[in-house]
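The freezer alarm interrupted the setup, so I double-checked each line after restarting. Inputs confirmed:
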Amino acid sequence: MSAYVTLTRRELGTFFFSWTGYIVIAGAVFLMGLGFISILDKLQGEATPMPITEIFLSLCFWLILLFSAPIITMRLFAQEKYSGTFETLMTAPVGDLEVVLAKFTAALVFYMVMWLPLIGCVFILRALTKGGGLADTGTLGSTFLGIFMLGTLYVAIGCFASALTRSQIVAAITSLAIGMGLFLLSFLADQTAADGSWMAAALNCMAMRQQVEDFARGTVDTRCLVYYATASLFFLFLTYRVVESRRWK
Amino acid sequence: MIEVTNLTKRYAGRTAVAGISFSVARGDIVGLLGPNGAGKTTTMRILSCFMPATSGAVRVAGMDVFDHADDVRRRIGYMPENNPLHAEMRVREYLKFRARLKGLGRARSRERVDAVVQQCGLNDVSKRIIGQLSKGYRQRVGLADALVHEPELIILDEPTIGLDPSQIRAVRQMIKDLAQRHTVLLSSHLLPEVEMTCRRVLIMREGKILADDTPENLEKGMGRHGQVIAEIAAAPADLKECWERMPEVQTYNISASGGEYYRCALSVGGGEDLRPQIFALVVERGWKLRELSRRRLSLEDIYIRLTRPESEEESSG
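Predicted 3D structure, all chains:
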């Protein structure tokens, strides 16, 4: 347990030791700023029934998620394998599971820190508009829950991709491809008719684009929570097996 | 401390270690010597629980390295080849991280980090970033990391590779000092290193152990292939006749050596010293003698002889 805490702290520290961490945050803030501007633009036009969190999420959420998660996670295992520190790490008395969970936790915490400026955007909007009915605390909460759940899945995918290779670029491209593929499934769900077949039901469960809109509207569907949790666990399990495979005979 | 029996490691299509057995007693300092690709690193990685053996049993402190990997890892301080470190961390911070990772408590890890910083001479650089240190200092940081949890066994893979001579000397001295409190297994492809630091040498080639003894015994055992050099002023035909008559001389080689002198290189079997006999012979015949010396095979000759690839050995012998 103490090894887990030590490792998580070091991994988290690494994001802030190097430029990558700051560049990723800067890029995310830039995209959030673009979203913010488009919200202001929309609000000046005619009235819209959409909550502002939904406007925001539909615009730049996916861009930030799809690109930041691979960049945050590509380093985790690949760099250690490349530089050889993976050997010193795995010859210390730490379990494979502890290592995987520590790296996952650190990346997820960093990912959430990256989203914090969004709260600032919402508060500025609230302060500037009268009535304050733009985004209540519940909607904001469910929006962040959505950001968190999707982050869990995408960070787990990134961990898996990074554990597979020694090259950070390969890791980033692999996790981008898997993540993009899962995202595109939601368009497939749009195309298939809701005819009650198992295919349509399954695709509906994986339609992340629509689910994110739900989160942004303040709807929390337990089915998607279960989907994100199990999918994340699945990718973490794969990561664990990859790390463990070094000890297979 | 270490017991290895029939250890074999096969990578896809290649056998890195082929059924080696050896044991290392507590408090011993043992050198694994061999050319690159002899299987030294593989052996060490298996000992340090980084990867499993294909077959065979490896026990450290009485525990199997595969079944009790955690207990074994707690007892081993391992410095891999090329000494990988987190370049972005500061020396002290890194050592503290490693100490905590190895299960030391907060107070204990502070105490141990202070101790190893002192021991490895890192006081001046303890606040510097590892990536900016010279290679010699980085090597000390790696050594400090291996020592920080007071392991019973220290495994060092090529500890002095890439250092300049004065740094090599400093690191060797540190390793020698370690031997008083720990069991040390180190690998090297440099002979003088092992000769100077180790009490026992294991010579490996192509995944097999070819020799396992103290440096002195290895020299002695091979000493029977010693050589006597004599420079004598006499007719080559006479010399030839004399050497033919001496039963101890296995082969000889006579070459002109300037003026009336001839240089005779005699290889002698049985480890006997032929010099008194040769001197007596020279006196008896009334020849002039300019040089009479005996050259024992050094550990280096033994090493070269043992680690020469088989094909080369066949063609030369």
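Quick read of the result. The two ends of chain A are 28 Å apart (CA to CA).
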